[in-house]
Amino acid sequence: MTDPADLYSEALSGRVALVARLDDGTAWRVDVEPWLGRASASDERLLGRARGPVLDVGCGPGRHVHALARQGVLAVGVDVTHAAVELARRGGADVVHGSIFDHLPGAGTWRTALLLDGNIGIGGCPVALLRRIGAMLRSDGRVLAELEPPGTGLRAGRLRLEGEAVVSAPFCWARVAVDAIDEPAAAAGFTVAERWGDDGRWFAALELGTS
Fold it and tell me: Each residue of 15-46: pLDDT tens digit?
């Protein structure tokens, strides 16, 4: 087995196609191509809801940070994968190489956090992830999260990345449907202020400190 970050790096370089598989058998293709380009129209519409400064959690190659910079919005990314960080920085993004659970700059000052491209799954426990992000936000902060289609529930477990003849070591991950985010959000101190679909994608805005 290989390190998940190494296999993800191979995918970013175009050398391998990835499939993600939870231990319950749920599997999906990991299409990194959109992450390597410019922000899409649906990305741009989503980013129009962000209030700076913005922390992009699991920013990957940085397309959201780049798009916000073009809009004049202060944004910083954080990602654990060295190859993704290098790609983001090469494009001019300000990115921290590390985990959202590490010590990060600006605690309590971020106005918006992004959890896009399935990153609500980071760590395998959406409540713990949202609580950590809540500690990074201002008291009036918000999370803009990309979620799974309605009716697919909340699934958490061990995930492996598969690439041709290579399989990664397992790591904890979760998938949350847009109509299943209420309970983990509430447990972390957030209210679901809005949810919507756009171009086949599903999103929710989570507000901190509201009732």
Answer: 889 999 999 998 999 999 999 999 999 999 99
- Measured CA distances, 188 to 8, 180, 185, 208 (Å): 29, 14, 5, 9
Q: For helices 82-90 and 4-12, give the axis angle rounded to 10 degrees.
A: 30
Where does 48-109 show beta strands of DSSP type E?
Answer: 54-57, 75-79, 95-97
How many other C-beta atoms lie within 10 A of the C-beta of residue 2? 13
- Per DSSP, the three-state class of 10 is helix
| Spatial separation of the C-alpha atoms in residues 161 and 36, rounded to whole Å | 19
What does residue 63 show for φ and ψ, rounded to 5 degrees? -65, -30
- Residue 97: strand, helix, or coil: strand
> Which residues, other chains included, contact 89 with Cβ-Cβ below 8 Å and sequence gap of 6+?
62, 95
